[in-house]
Amino acid sequence: MYDVQKLTLAHIPQLQTLQQQVIDALPDKTMLQPLDESELRFILEGNGVMIGLFADEQLIAFRALLEPPIDDEHLGRDIGHANLDEVLYQEISNVHPDHRGQGLQQQMAQHIMQYVDTNKHKIVCATVMPFNIASLKDKFAQRMHVAALKLKYGGKLRYVFAKSLVEETAWEDEAIVVPMGETEAQQQLLRDGYFGVSMERRGDGWFVLYKKRTKHNFA
Prior knowledge:
GO terms for molecular function: acyltransferase activity, transferring groups other than amino-acyl groups. It comes from Caryophanon latum. By secondary structure, the chain is α+β, with helices and mostly antiparallel strands. The protein has one domain: Aminopeptidase (3-Layer(aba) Sandwich), CATH 3.40.630. It contains 6 helices and 10 strands. It has helices at 12-24, 37-44, 75-78, 104-112, 133-141, 183-191, and strands at residues 3-6, 48-55, 58-66, 87-95, 123-128, 145-152, 156-164, 176-179, 195-202, 205-211. β9 (195-202) and β10 form a beta hairpin. The mean pLDDT is 93.
């Protein structure tokens, strides 16, 4: 049984420790874009919300939402959304290696989204590295979809996920299935008006399913 808490500035040392434990356990350290102390502080000082899961008073998982500054790297620009103030980010999500496989990312996602004011924020966005399977599954399970695939964070390839918080998205039945490693083919589909809506494993490979929307519910 885990204790869920809304985190404060006092939790920064524990957050930094947990982030490092997660990074140390990754076979590919580039899979995670950690938050430095100033970024953690920015969220916890009122520019978003962060929740943590505690086991025996030890922080074993956390998840963050961020009200991002309006800058050239804003994800709203990547998805072509006109009103950047309406965009909220799903920021970093970390689970201690000893507690993986228990669906904690999804539990935290359901809990933290209760803090969202949909009168203010209409779109939620996130970035995920291709082949970061756990994080990709997390985003698709929340019914987020791939709206862009491009270089972010100084040249790192990332899927840009998006989801309307105020309206359900409906998809056409026809799907185009593309190997996750075929970057250019996916980028062309995205330019042609398709969105990545799910993923599946076929043999030893991972594939992304792309569909078009039946209606246009956000820019």
